[in-house]
Amino acid sequence: PDILEYIHCKSSEEKKAWALIDAGYDGSFNGEAYNSIFFQNSNNSVRVTDSFMESVVHDRPWHTRAVRDGSVVDTYRARDIWRQIAEAAHQCGDPGLQFDTTVNSWHPCPNSGRINASNPCSEYMFLDDSACNLASLNLRKFQFPVGHPQAGDFDIESFERAVDLTILAQEIIVDNARYPTDKIGENSHLYRPLGLGYANLGALLMSRGLPYDSDAGRAYAGAITAIMGGRAYRMSAEISRDHGGPFAGYEKNREPFLGVMRKHRQHVDHIDSALCPYDLLQAARAAWDEAIGIGEHHGFRNGQSTVLAPTGTIGFMMDCDTTGIEPDIALVKYKRLVGGGLLKITNQTVGEALTRLGYDATTQKQITDFIATHDTIEGASGLRPEHLSVFDCAFRAQNGTRSIHPMGHIKMMAAAQPFISGAISKTVNLPSDATIEDIENAYMQAWQLGLKAIAIYRDGCKRSQPLSTSKTEKTQGPAAASGSFLPVQVLIDKLPTEIQQQLRDATSLSLEDFLQHVASLANPKGQPMAVRRKLPDERRSITHKFAIAGHDGYIHVGMYDDGSPGEIFIRMAKEGSTISGLMDSFATAVSLALQHGVPLKLLVDKFSRTRFEPSGWTGNSEIPRASSIMDYLFRWLEAK
Q: Tens digit of pLDDT for each residue in 230-245?
C-alpha cells in the first residue's frame, strides 16, 4: 500500500540535493549535498508480476493490498503507477524493475520457497536468507595472444578450464566462510549457491570488430555466456558425483531443477548459428548436454551457479576496459575520485579492433591520436563509416553524436539471460534528452524479452556521477540556465576598502572568477598565505588506547587552549619499524595540516572509511568496527 511513497522516495530526496547544490553546497557524490539526504546508499527496485504488466498493457485497474490479510487498500489505474515509476527513474535513475513472475519461472528450487528479493544490484536472486560467493572472469584473458595462428580468437579450452577451477574454488569456500547470520549460514550450506560471472564483454566484442548493438555481437555474447553457465553446472554435477553428493535441498526440488536445466539447454538452440562461430556454439551445446547428462544421474552440488555482477570495482583492479556485460561508457571517460580529482581513462582496445578491421599502423595512429585529442572517434580521418558502430559506447562523447541505443543494451541482456542462474546487474544507459516515454518503453521491452531485472540511468540525471564523458560537471536547473552569474556586492562590502575600490564595477562576475580576482588582489605576488598556528609550550592532551582486530595502539592528541586539536601522535604496540615510521610520518603531516588551519572536518571526511588491514572489531561501543587504523583514528576524532 505504500508503493507510491517508495517509488518517489529517492527522487524526492534528489530534489533536495539540487536545492542544496544551487544554494552553494558541495555537489560531488561524497559532498555535503548528497551526504545530507536519505536513500543515497540504496539501489531501489519495484518488483512487478506479469499480472501487473498485463494490467498496464490493457489499461486495467490495480489494487494494492494489506500485507497481513490481503484486503484491498487502494485502487489505481495500473498505468498511473507505471507512469510514476518512469517519472522517478527519469529524474534520478531509481527505481529499477524486477519481474517477479519471470524470476520464479526460472527458480530451480521452488519447493523450498519462492524467490522474493535480490541483493542490492539485482543479480543474485534466490531463497530468503541465503548468500552466494561472487567471482568474475576477465573475458579478454581468454583470447589467443598476438603471434598465435588464431590471434584474437576466443580460447574455449582455457575458458572452460577456468570455469571448472573457479566453480571448484567457490564450492570449497562455502564450507570455509563465515556468514552474517545463522540462518544465512544454514541456507548457504543447505543449497550452496554460487555466482560465477564475467567482465570485459564490451571490450571483447570491440576487439573482434563486432558492434555491441548488433545481432552478431549478441550471438557471440550469448554463446560465451552459455558455455560459462553449462560448464559451471557440469562441474557442479561432477563435484556431486565425486565428492559429497548433491546439495541438501536437491531431492525435494529434483524435477523443477532438471526442468530449469533443460530450459537453459533449449535456449542454446535459439542462438543464431549463421552469426556465431561454429566452435563456440558447439561448445555451448556440449556443455549443457554434459551438465544435464551427469546431473540426471548424480544431481548437482549447487543450487545456483552463475550471475552477472556489475564488477565496477574489481573491473578496474583487473584492468578491464568494460565492466560486467556493459559496453564501454565512452572511449575516453573521467572518473571522479573520492576526495577530489579526476582520473582520465582511455579505452585500450581501439588499436586491436582497428587491426582486426584491416587498418594499417599509420592510419591506426592517426585515429588513436584523434581520440586522445578530441575524446571521440567521430571525425577521425581514415576511419570508414561502416566501422563507426564498432566503437559506439553507452554515452555520447562530449564532442560526438553517436551512442548505443537503449534497446541495444536490453537486447544484449536478453541474449545472455537464458544462460544465467540468477540475473544480470546492468545499467541501460539513456542520453540526457531521453523522455519519460523512452523509459516506459525500455522497461516494457525488458519484460517482453524475458529479463529478470532492469535498471536505467539517464546521463546527467543526478548532479554528480562517478563516471562521465566530460572533465566538467554537468549541471541542470535554474542556476545553470542563467549561466550561474551571481550578484556579489554583499561579498564586496566585506572586503578591505582598497580592494572594494578595484571591484566596484564587478557586480556580475561569475563566482569562480570573482574569487580568483579577489585572491589575486589580496595576494598579488602569488605567495602562499597559510600561517602556522603553533601550540603553546604547555598544553592539554588526551591519550586513547584502542585495538583493531587484535592490533593494539595509542592515540595522543595535543590541544590548543580552546580545546581544538593541534597535534597527533600514533603508536602501534607490536608493529614493525616500517609501519611505525609510516604512522609517525602520517601523524606529523596531519599535525602540520591542523596547525596551518585545515579544518578537522575536512580531514575526517577525507580519511574516515578508508580500507586496508588491519581492520575488524574494536571493542569500542561507539566505533564497533573499523575498516583501517585511519578509519578508527578519524572517526574517534570526529566523535571527540
A: 999 999 999 999 998 9
